[in-house]
């Protein structure tokens, strides 16, 4: 917690002697200058999916100018530029680039937004910080634990605004729920449970081939060590490949993981779990994907609170869509979809509520306000929050990736004396068996080990630590390598 207070204090006051790009301003003075100007000039990096949302969101703000669009796919880039030109106005002047490094050299650019595949996220935060640009980065803010730490160090050192694309941090309804939970309105929270259960389909198999002429393959893969191109990498199904994606847990699930983490008691805010485990499988689909489509994971924190997480992607008759968070309390009460469910007469308490404050303006407007003020504290989900909530998902994924095959049955879960964990596992097991049609004892779960984590050192200790620590850091191409946290 002392580290976080130091970060926030440095962020607000600026850091003496730090150069902000070619301009030579601190974050504070730079923000003051921006506040006097009409528009924040930004570059949107990555133009599919969330990138289109960024374009729509920022063009709706009068005090923003999209000055650049950035994408290694020349066809996509041309289409998005044409759309801005057709729309007229200030955004019609936007320029196109394939390489974000060219954009960061432009002293007239104030911020970048990042909606690339996951393996680019932290690197762009780092480069933006070093160039003195603010950064809105889509979820997850990192592809692995180590690069997330370096991105945090860069945000700390250069005092830039980083806002994580965890949009629920900008929603007043979620802020009220978190305020109530953390203030003890429902008593002591035991479990913060996230769900990323939305139907998807298998992706089949695509042959290895040469990348199309419109795609700069070297820039697309960037830091990722990938030998060959196939069409299941471009432009969405990379999510299900460990080299560039993080599976559903840190795709859609990043939003619900972030809320689950946000709800924990203040005493463990911005700390890592003490231990984690995950289990699941990629059932029903014979395809090129590597990540689980069914998953149950647990993380335990120093104060005894736990985070549970569910993933269910296999569609079936009667599928129940669950993209939400639930909270379980010591007296048996539960908060489900914002509604309190009593247990044995339990009732909400009449306690003072400490309000969780958010910057108004929604995800994009709040980021612009923070940039103009030069105040990272105004970001709804800064890089500090992003690193800790994303690491939670990375650790769960590491347990899964180290898992062993265990017969698919009700005995597969290894939860010791945790009856609530077993109860929640059995719910997802029953859905896999009865809904998805996974046959008992004729298929396999992947059951990951319990992994112990030293949060201060950010490495695993104890059993399986050697193998687990290898997964904290991705291999990287030399051209796109990152500095250490100390040398950033």
Written overview of the protein:
The strands form 2 sheets. Strands 7, 8, 9, 10, 11, 12, 13, 14, 15, 16 and 17 form an 11-stranded mixed beta sheet that branches. Strands 3-2-1-4-5-6 form a 6-stranded parallel beta sheet, sandwiched between helices. 32% of the residues lie in helices and 18% in strands. The two termini are 22 Å apart. It has helices at residues 2-13, 27-36, 50-59, 74-87, 100-104, 121-130, 145-158, 172-182, 217-221, 253-262, 362-373, 383-401, 419-435, 465-470, and strands at residues 40-45, 64-70, 95-97, 111-114, 134-137, 162-164, 189-197, 275-281, 294-300, 306-312, 322-329, 334-336, 339-341, 404-407, 444-447, 451-454, 459-461. Helix 6 links the parallel strand 4 and strand 5 (134-137). The longest helix has 19 residues, at 383-401. It contains 14 helices and 17 strands. It is α/β, with parallel strands linked by helices and 488 residues long.
